[in-house]
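Q: What residues go here?
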């Protein structure tokens, strides 16, 4: 087993209109050993119809685990993005996601901070996030599930405020899900210097690259994107990232987030080669 493994977010099958179960079968055929399911409360009718990869947390998690076991896929994390500045949303959503993750065998739940509600001051926002994180950590610690903060919204695409949110809790279950593509698009601070600053608390990572065309059109204008291009075909320096991860002793999964099944195939081949060839 490598120190760094490659998985894929089920977003890679969205453009092909595939269900979760069909999606993990495709990932296994490509050679992936890990997947990152996305979960929601309630039911999505497109997902129920088999056109979309979303899982409902009302689904039986043990049945979902059986599906993954059938094709030899393990969950690296559960994607459960929820606005930390809205505790009435985030606390029940994230605590339910933690229990779901525990049942399917996923060690990590990923989230971001969301957007500051109108009328809320920045100081109030950080106080409310502290409360939300504290409540969520009670469940995370009880279940032994880690929660990773991802660069994706109003504060997490800047180094100073990303670290400020990270420091709202010293729980061993509160850490980082790094997304170099989102942080790069934010355009505020250096992707690699910021990763180096937070890598000791890294639980999981997204393999999101950004095409040169998207970089030219959107950098500095957005705070993230649902999917990127195939890894190795965009602006992200993956050998540099792997060197940083190894210097910090990261042993975990890079979960590819790209737009198509073909890009997922190319991403896996590229990242496996970079991991094998790159030393600290």
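A:
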């Amino acid at each position: 087993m490598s120190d760094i493994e490659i998985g894929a977010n089920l977003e890679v099958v969205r453009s092909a209109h595939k269900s979760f179960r069909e999606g993990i079968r495709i990932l296994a055929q490509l050679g992936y050993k890990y997947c990152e399911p996305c979960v929601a409360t309630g039911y999505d009718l497109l997902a129920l119809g088999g056109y979309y990869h979303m899982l409902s947390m009302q689904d039986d998690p043990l049945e979902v685990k059986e599906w993954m076991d059938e094709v030899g896929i393990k969950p690296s994390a559960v994607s459960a993005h929820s606005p930390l500045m809205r505790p009435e949303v985030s606390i029940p959503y994230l605590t339910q996601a933690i229990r779901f993750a525990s049942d399917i065998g996923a060690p990590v739940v990923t989230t971001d901070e969301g957007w500051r509600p109108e009328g809320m001051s920045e100081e109030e926002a950080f106080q409310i996030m502290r409360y939300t994180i504290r409540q969520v950590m009670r469940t995370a610690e009880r279940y032994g599930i880690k929660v990773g903060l991802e660069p994706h919204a109003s504060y997490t695409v800047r180094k100073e405020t990303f670290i400020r949110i990270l420091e709202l809790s010293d729980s061993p279950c509160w850490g980082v899900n790094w997304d170099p593509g989102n942080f790069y698009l934010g355009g505020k601070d250096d992707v690699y210097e910021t990763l180096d600053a937070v890598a000791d608390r890294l639980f999981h990572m997204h393999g999101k690259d950004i095409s040169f065309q998207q970089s030219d059109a959107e950098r500095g204008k957005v705070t993230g994107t649902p999917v990127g291009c195939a890894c190795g075909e965009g602006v992200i320096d993956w050998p540099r990232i792997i060197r940083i991860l190894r210097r910090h002793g990261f042993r975990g999964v890079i979960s590819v987030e790209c737009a198509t099944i073909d890009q997922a195939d190319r991403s896996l081949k590229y990242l496996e080669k970079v991991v094998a060839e790159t030393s600290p």
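A: Context that may help when evaluating the design: The mean pLDDT is 96. DSSP finds eleven helices and eleven strands in the chain.
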